[in-house]
Structures are given as C-alpha cells and as structure tokens.
Amino acid sequence: MSTEKGGPKLYSDSLCVDEVNQDVYYSNSFLNFLNHQLTKLAKQQADRLHCLIDRYDRFHKQQASDLQKQRHTVGNVLDEMKNQKQAQDLLSEQVIEQQEMSKYIDEQLDKMNEAFTVLQENNEEWTLITKDLFQQTSSYEGIHEELSSQISNQTNQFNDFEELTKEWRNQIEQQIKSLKQHITTSNALYVATTSRNQSLRSSHVETDRAISNLNTNHSVSTNRIAEGPFVDLFRELPVNFPIHQVYINGSTIEAGKFLNISQDGSIAHFIDDLDIKTFDCTKIDGVKWGQAEQGEK
C-alpha cells in the first residue's frame, strides 16, 4: 500500500518539475528574445544617434564653410571695389553712397566675425547663435544682391567712362593734329609775311621819296598853315604808327599806318598794305588807334 501510495506522488512531483523546467525554458527564451530585441533596439538607437551626430557635424561644417565662402566672396568684392577706386573717384554723389554702403558692409562683416568667434568658443550656444545667423542671412543676402547690382551698375558706368575717355582722347588727338597743321600754316605764313615785309621795306624808300616830292609840291601850292586838334597830334606821331580807322563826316575809313603830315599840317598820309591814303586833317572828326593801344580822339 505504501508503494502504491508513493508512486502517484512521485509522478506528480515529476510533472511539476517538468512544468517548472518548461516554464523556466520559456521564460529564458522570452528573456533572450527580449534581450535580443533590446540589444537590436539599442543598436538602432545608437546608430540613429550617431547618424544625428554626423548630420549635426556636417551641418555645422557646412555652415562654417558657407560663412567662410561668404566672407571670401565679400572680401573679393571689397578688393574689386578698391581696385576700381580711381574710376569711382570720378563719380559724384553715387560714389559717396557706395562708400557709405561699403562702410555698412564692413560693419556687418565685423559683426559676423564676432558672432563666428563666439560660435567657435561657445559650442553650447550653437543652437541660439545658429537661429540668429539664419535670421541675419536673409538680410545679408539682400545686401549682397544690392551690392552685386551696384557693382554691375558701377561696371557699366566704368565701361561708359572708358568709352568717353577714348572719345576724349580721339578729340584731343584731332585737336593736336589741327594745332600742328595750324602751326605749320602759321610758320609758312610767317615766312611769307617776313618776305613781304622785306619787300615793303625796300618799297618804303621809294614811297618816302614820292611822298617827299608830294609834300614839296603841296608846300609850293599853298602858303597857309592848317589848324586843328589832329594837326598837332599827327606832327608828334612817328612813322608807321598804327591808326586803325579815321572818322570823317560820320564815315569810317580804314587808315593803316601813319606816314607823315604835310608841312602846313593840312594833309596826312597813311599806308594800308601797298596803298597810300591821303586825308584832310581839318575834316577829321576822330581816329581809332591800332592794336598797340586803342582809343578815340
């Protein structure tokens, strides 16, 4: 009886152990599955975190590179503006406005450099500084576009000025050519005038001789002494004194150069080129001097 009673009890205990072992197995399997899933999830999270970190680093490097390129671009623009300073000096109010704009850009660049330095020294403030830079980027892009437009206009004005300079140079060269022609003509005229004056000097001797005979004949034909304001004036004048015009009875007559006056003072003789002119001193109302000194008497 004892054996029969003990048999079922052992069988029952064996079943319990098997069930426990089976539960432990399933529990371990489930734990292994959970551990595998957690490990897989942790790896995915780690990969995602590394990906985010890499994206953040690339974004940071891209922003730094973009800022550096923008600084380099603006620096090149400023260098180009300095190279064009000579041309810009010829402009008036627009140059002043462009200088003010250049000064404003320099100030903005200084602010960007300060912000970039703070960004490098304080990485923990990167997010706030990045947002601030994003807000400023739009305004800088507008300034850059405006500066590019002004540089384009400046280039067009410089090209127009260069064309105008070429036109001025052509005009000056033409004037120099005309001046050379004028000098050549003047030299030829001077040579011709010198030759003509030599001929006139040789003819003056014969003219003076004819006038002397004329005066002698006139003094014989009259015994009176003329009176008048121009009689005494002409007596004091030297030979070849320039008299531009003579006024007689309201008429203007070209005179030329004074030769002499008759002994009685009634007749004055002038020479105009090769023509000898005679005037009655008592009828002269006035004279106009030549280019040496001008005035009316």
Question: Approximately how much helix is present in the residues?
Answer: over 70%
Along the chain, the helix and strand elements come as HHHHHEEEEE
Overall residue-averaged pLDDT value: 78
Q: Please, how many domains?
A: 2
The general outline is rod-shaped
Radius of gyration: 58 Å
Structural class: alpha+beta
How far apart the termini lie comes to: 185 Å
Describe this structure in words.
The protein has 297 residues and is α+β, with helices and mostly antiparallel strands. The protein folds into two domains: 2-162; 225-297, Roll (SH3 type barrels). The chain is 74% helix and 12% strand. It contains five helices and five strands; from the N terminus they run H-H-H-H-H-E-E-E-E-E. It has helices spanning 2-83, 85-89, 93-121, 126-221, 229-236, and strands at residues 241-248, 251-261, 267-272, 275-280, 284-289. Strands 4-3-2-1-5 form a five-stranded antiparallel beta sheet. The radius of gyration is 58 Å and the shape is rod-shaped. The N and C termini lie far apart (185 Å). Mean pLDDT is 78; it is low at 292-297.
Considering the chains and any ligands shown, give keywords for the structure.
single chain, SH3 type barrels, 5-stranded antiparallel β-sheet, 5 helices, 74% helix, rod-shaped
Characterize this entry briefly:
With 297 residues, this protein is of the alpha+beta class. It is built from 5 helices and 5 strands, in the order H-H-H-H-H-E-E-E-E-E. Mean pLDDT is 78; it is low at 292-297.
